[in-house]
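User: Second chain of the day. Same drill as before.
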Amino acid sequence: MNVSVAGLRVLVTAGGRGIGRATCAAFAEHGARVHTCDVDAQALRESCRETGCTGTPADVGDPDAVDALFDAALPALGGLDVLVNNAGIAGPTARVEAISTQDWRRTMDVNLAGQFYCVRRAVAPLERAGGGSIVNISSTAGFLGFPFRTPYAASKWGVIGLTRSLAIELGEHNIRVNAICPGSIDNERMHGVVAREAEAKGVSAHAILDGYLRASSLRTLIDPKDIADTILFLASPAAHKISGQVLSVDGDTDTLRI
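Assistant: Same format as last time:
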């Protein structure tokens, strides 16, 4: 089985920390050329120093910033074979009537529109390369309900619709499009989500975290490297017939078990 990604030209959004940094590190370790971006310039510098990738500060929720990102990334990489749409934000944690229009729009801009902005710039260079792979990061919230997190859940459901539609549209150009739905990631952002949900519900953070763990058959949080490994597989020749799929890397999560 050929799972080599050596020599691939890869753009990973939000590579400053978490899943993005783990993905940059994994591709670079296996011989790919990697460019990344992040809204946090310090985190971006640290990631590039650690992984050896090149980078551009960018907010994918801003279409002009995405254009600037691709204008820098394509010459740096010499083309494009893989796009990893990883950038996303947690959004607000509140009852729906307490969520502001601004927070709703910002979550949609980054989590869903940002993927659209990146894909529309990626299609032409992927076609010139003879095809390639797009991996969109959704979430278990993209197929399960998520009370108190409606903007986040709605945006991640949208990512799945975007993925399936793009797979059909781009397949004739040998561009494969898949989505990964991570479960609860063991990182700073997830622990912040737990703290805010605990405050909103008036319970302890331990109780909220225990609920997330009980929702998983494996009773575990997910390591960012677990997601990075799955992305590498989807980008490799071993996955050359896999497109339009939604892969859960979540320890078998089901809200009915909470």
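Residues 109 and 177 are 20 Å apart (CA to CA).

User: Great, on to the next one.
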